[in-house]
Amino acid sequence: QALNIAIQSGNARDVRLLAHKLVGASSSLGVNGVVPALSQLELMGESGDLNGVDNAYDEFMGQLSRTRDFIDDFLKTRLPSSAPVPL
């Protein structure tokens, strides 16, 4: 949400900082599908040129949605419905 707010307000500095943090977190968690779009957002923020930022953000959100769907499907098919989710 903070990344979207930074994009909507045209705050290139915050776009760079937030995208950078999300690249690191995503990479650490193995959610590599979102990394290219986030890296693009980071570079846009660094350059101060947010031209096309909406397309990169849409790509990030699309990849994030696909990742969420994959995890949801995996949990539905791999775990018995009565089993507690391991922490």
| Mean pLDDT over the full residue set | 93
> Structural class given helices, strands, pairing?
mainly alpha
Uncertain residue segments: none
Task: Tell me the number of helical segments per DSSP (H or I, 4 or more residues long).
Answer: 4
Question: Largest sheet, described in full?
Answer: none
Distance between the termini: 26 Å
What is the CA-atom radius of gyration, in angstroms?
15 Å
Q: How much of the sequence is in beta strands? A: under 5%
The assembly state of the depicted protein chains is: single chain
Count every beta strand, where a strand is a DSSP E run of 2 or more residues: 0
Query: What is the H/E order?
Result: HHHH
What is the overall shape?
A: elongated
What's the helical proportion of residues? over 70%
Task: Describe it.
The chain has 87 residues and is mainly α. Helix content is 75%, strand content 0%. The chain is built from four helices and no strands. Helix 3 packs antiparallel against helix 4 (53-78). The longest helix is centred in the C-terminal third of the chain and has 26 residues, at 53-78. The protein is elongated and about 50 Å long. The two termini are 26 Å apart. The model has no long low-confidence stretch (mean pLDDT 93).
